Amino acid sequence: MLLEKEMKLADVINHDYNLIPVISRFGIMLGFGDGSIENICKEKDVNIDFFLTILNTFHDPQYLDRKYLKNFSATLLIEYLQKAHNYYLVNKIPEIECLIDDMANKLEVNKSSHQLLQKFFEEYKEEFIKHIEREEKRVYPYAINLEKSVVKENASPTLLSQIREYPINSYEAEHESVEEKLTDLKNIIIKYLPSSDKQQSRYKLLKELAVLEKDLHDHAQMENLILVPKVEVLEKIIINQDLKNNNK
Amino acid sequence: MSKSKKVIVVSNAFLLSVGIENLVLELSGMLVDHVFNGSEKNLFTKISNKKPEFVIIDPISVADSLLKLIRELNQDRYIKIIGLISSSTNQNIISMFKHTLNIQNSKYELIEVLKSIVGKEDKIISQNEQLLSKRESEILKNLALGLTNQEIADKLFLSIHTVMTHRKKITRKLGIKTVSGLTVYALMNKLIDIREVERRD
After folding, report:
1. Considering only CB atoms, which chain A residues are within 8 Å of B181?
2. Which of A198, A212, B5, B152 is an S-S bond match for B53, by CB 3.0 to 4.6 Å?
3. Rounded to whole angstroms, how far apart are CA atoms A151 and B160?
4. Residues B159, B139: Cα–Cα separation, whole Å
């Protein structure tokens, strides 16, 4: 279903619960009342077009093909992506950690298998945090810098050398491993972790992992299909601006 | 999961092609790889380059070149051709197809027909597919202990290519791709001992 600004936000959420974490990234919390998307956005001072595009992208990943997201600035996009990072780190990862611990605690049998799982997730978490840190400390500031320089039509020598030595495409392909480990974890729990009396925690855990997996996948798609191509265009513009300036 | 069987659709009608994609997804191990417009030039070459197992054709979309296209496709004995028909389709056209799907049928009627066309040859193999062979277990053990593909190849006197092929099969059977995931599996199933892993670190 195509989501439009005249629709009531409550109807949209009833239609697709996966959107709850997404709206919270825009500062819209449950209990938002009975208003349309448009009205609630105005009230909360949220960019309506951007909000709607993000909602549609999460609701139907094929929406990305339409490239609407390309029309927004890298800065706006990054602001959203950072909020998503924050949500993973502050909410999702601790929640999952809690469920894994809950499943592993006070077990009579198969204790070691559960400890292996804990250790596996610990490793995953470290890798995930490193990945996010790298994006926030290097990739995002780089993209924002590029965008600012394009507007000013004047790039600093540091930025120019950065474009030449570490262009955006030298960062790519890292998402894969983070996604693969999560899939492995799910399969291990479904197929190979010996059963215990903690079935309920296991169901909850699997559900949370599946939700995180989808969220992360959409997130990565947004970076790979929207942000990276956008940054590549900015890099080209700056290089061309620089060539022109030097020829003057 | 085993390798997907490729389906090519020839149709200009959006509603039809979306419907077919959904229908094909109902059968595991099948996937619509591409939808061609019936009026495209060099259609046969484009289709055969994709090496599909099945080609589903909406006769209306190819109009007069239908017979020519079917003749060309028939030269490739690996391709099964399926015609999309309805109660108003001309009998001459229906007779050109060995297999047909009637677009007026209900979902599960269509699934039954499609299943019978696809055949059942794969089902029996999938039973044995879960178990790792002796060689695969051996390679899994070494992977879990942190050896690289090259080191495993040297140790077991195999080519690196063979090791990689085994590795792909292991991943397909277990549903686990990363080395740390494989290590957890190997430990849980006592293929290796935790002390061996710790020695590695």
Report:
1. 120, 180-181, 184-185, 187-188
2. B5
3. 51
4. 13
Three-state secondary structure call for residue B83: strand
Q: State whether B187 and A194 contact (CB < 8 Å).
A: no
SS3 A156: coil
The rounded distance, in Å, linking the Cα atoms of A50 and A26 is 10
Query: What is the torsional sign of CA B165, B170, B172, B176?
Result: negative
pLDDT tens profile A40-77: 999 999 999 999 999 998 898 778 766 777 789 999 99
User: Which residue type sits at A42?
Assistant: K
pLDDT at B83: 96
Q: Which residues make Cβ contacts (< 8 Å) with residue B98, sequence separation at least 6?
A: B80, B81
Q: Which amino acid is it at A186?
A: K
Q: Residue type at B196?
A: E
Distance of alpha carbon B21 from alpha carbon A121, whole angstroms? 37
Say whether A183 and B188 touch across the interface (CB within 8 A).
no
Tokens of A237: 């513009």
